[in-house]
């Protein structure tokens, strides 16, 4: 087995695939890239058992074969090369020899057959959407997903496809983001929960990409194919909580404010809040928004006043400032609207402008129970 | 700079308060404490001490030793009130003070000598407290907390003592090692086995020998014996945990009753958290079987102060902890890792009805007292819990025999 490939081209592909590989693996074979050579087509795969990603590379070769090459070692050496052709030759003594302009390097390889096979999707449904749309949808939602091992469904992003629109939802039970695209739709109704890791990989690869992504899915797995790359992952099993039911319908108190102003005030005030609970208090009366925080243990205290447009009753509500800053940061509008009803009901944050055609973002944040 | 530290201690505080309420108890042997079978003596008058009674002793034994004594159950609320009156006077008179328990105070009088004469000033304050409250009080004055405390104990009852600067070692030398705060029964035995009886002996010991025998504590005891103590007077007491426990009159195996008590305890402590705007991240359950084997279990949880999260966690822990099919003598719970904050509402688990219910219940409790509304399952344990806000910056009300 022998092939010739450009060093930077190979490195670029391997760095993307390397994101799949865990730092510590229970199965040593998972520390490798699988090289599957078929004449001029080299398929490289990486896997952590849950997620498998592979890319097809064009190489110069006449031979065939599969080997598993240590990922860390290969990436480290490739990073040092300037652009040049590299020749990979598999020797008889279980090593693969790389020849560059400057010398020769040998690494031990494992049998390709040991590498776990990627699952084949039985009887999948499919949808196509533009790479950048998917990347944006992930970017808008993934920060709101949870980390609780006891509630695995909340550690992912909920994909809800219908013939009218696509909806992406993430929540950790304290905050929730719902991102809807009305300009794209699926051929049939489907719902599944994607784990965070493959989504972060997709977000990284697809940001700004204009190419189409084919999403195929069944009850247990999903497959994302684009350009020369395929990502197959296991879905999170379980029923996603009924998020529609918790979005309050009637919110008579409506606050409109400049996002940047609001964000920087919350950030400043939050510095003075309790270091564990990050609790801040919003007091709204007339057209004045008063943001305050206090850390009793250290006698730290802050208060800011902002002018805002407000319709509704005067009210006082407590929030975890972390949630507010995360959400305000994730939006990119000039103005935001915060709709509220009671101090113990969710606040709904929506951007007032800056959305693309067909884009729809709703963010929910649960308050803390203030005394009195 | 040398300091001037004053230690003030109300003599047989509970007894004095009871005598104040009921004049007839004057000069009669008096015991305050639990009156049940498992009750212990919380305070005893000087008359009973001749019979060998001391605080912390089982009430049954105390009664046998001194049958003519009057036994009173005692009421922590009354004592707190009287203690507060004394606190007010001290607060008015001294620049910096620490209330270290219900009947003990430390005050930092450093630098006041220049203007008043600290000893004279303290003696006048003592007179004022005696006059205004009618409670006997003693104090010790020296350069640090430990020596002042020992001095107070030597001065008692109803007297005062000043240890002049430089005479700390000499003052401590002839005393029994038992007089050093921190030397309890166990340490006393260890030290006696080393042939040490008087503080003088400890003073003569090399510090590393003490350290080898008693660990880090050995060094502290050695320092204290030499009259060295640099701990400052801390005016505010930060609560690190809140807890409650119950010893039964009769050991029980009734799991329904035990669970009811745990629920009542959790409900009460969770309310204390909410009232003090605190959250807990660590809960623990303690259980003591009739053979005195004590087990406890703790669990880290996300910050919360909600009954419906805490109660199931406590009951779960009790379930795993109670596995010996033995009679139970004591159960207790503790919340620690406290931070200031309010409960973060959960989108899916909390319904508006429960939140409003909690809010209403807390409002009722605030107005009509802790026990005005409770869960029916906790009704069987009406006497559980405290009436006081534990987050008022004051030290917990600890019965005399519980502290060292």
Automatic annotation (TrEMBL), chain A:
Pfam families: DNA_pol3_beta, DNA_pol3_beta_2, DNA_pol3_beta_3
Keyword tags: Cytoplasm, DNA replication, DNA-binding, DNA-directed DNA polymerase, Nucleotidyltransferase, Transferase
Subcellular location: Cytoplasm
Gene Ontology molecular-function annotations: 3'-5' exonuclease activity; DNA binding; DNA-directed DNA polymerase activity
Domain DNA polymerase III beta sliding clamp central: 130-242
CDD domains to which the protein is assigned, alphabetical: beta_clamp
Keyword Repressor tagged: no
SUPFAM superfamilies the UniProt entry points to: DNA clamp
Positions of the DNA polymerase III beta sliding clamp C-terminal domain: 246-367
Limits of the DNA polymerase III beta sliding clamp N-terminal domain: 1-117
GO cellular component, one term: cytoplasm
Superkingdom: Bacteria
One Gene Ontology biological process: DNA strand elongation involved in DNA replication
Signal peptide (residue range): none
Known role: Confers DNA tethering and processivity to DNA polymerases and other proteins. Acts as a clamp, forming a ring around DNA (a reaction catalyzed by the clamp-loading complex) which diffuses in an ATP-independent manner freely and bidirectionally along dsDNA. Initially characterized for its ability to contact the catalytic subunit of DNA polymerase III (Pol III), a complex, multichain enzyme responsible for most of the replicative synthesis in bacteria; Pol III exhibits 3'-5' exonuclease proofreading activity.
Name of this chain's protein: Beta sliding clamp
UniProtKB/TrEMBL annotation, chain B:
Cofactor: Mg(2+)
Reactions catalysed: DNA(n) + a 2'-deoxyribonucleoside 5'-triphosphate = DNA(n+1) + diphosphate
Enzyme kind, highest EC tier: transferase
Pfam families: IMS, IMS_C
Active site: 104
Chain residues that bind Mg(2+): 9, 103
Gene Ontology biological process: DNA repair; DNA-templated DNA replication; error-prone translesion synthesis; SOS response
E.C. number: 2.7.7.7
Protein keywords: Cytoplasm, DNA damage, DNA repair, DNA replication, DNA-binding, DNA-directed DNA polymerase, Magnesium, Metal-binding, Mutator protein, Nucleotidyltransferase, Transferase
One Gene Ontology term, aspect cellular component: cytosol
Keyword NADP assigned: no
UmuC domain segment(s): 5-184
Domain of life: Bacteria
UniProt-annotated site: Substrate discrimination, residues: 14
Main location: cytoplasm
Family: Belongs to the DNA polymerase type-Y family.
NCBIfam families to which the protein is assigned, alphabetical: PRK02406.1
PANTHER family per the UniProt record, alphabetical: DNA POLYMERASE KAPPA, DNA REPAIR POLYMERASE UMUC / TRANSFERASE FAMILY MEMBER
Protein's recorded name: DNA polymerase IV
Organism in which the protein naturally occurs: Pricia antarctica
Gene: dinB
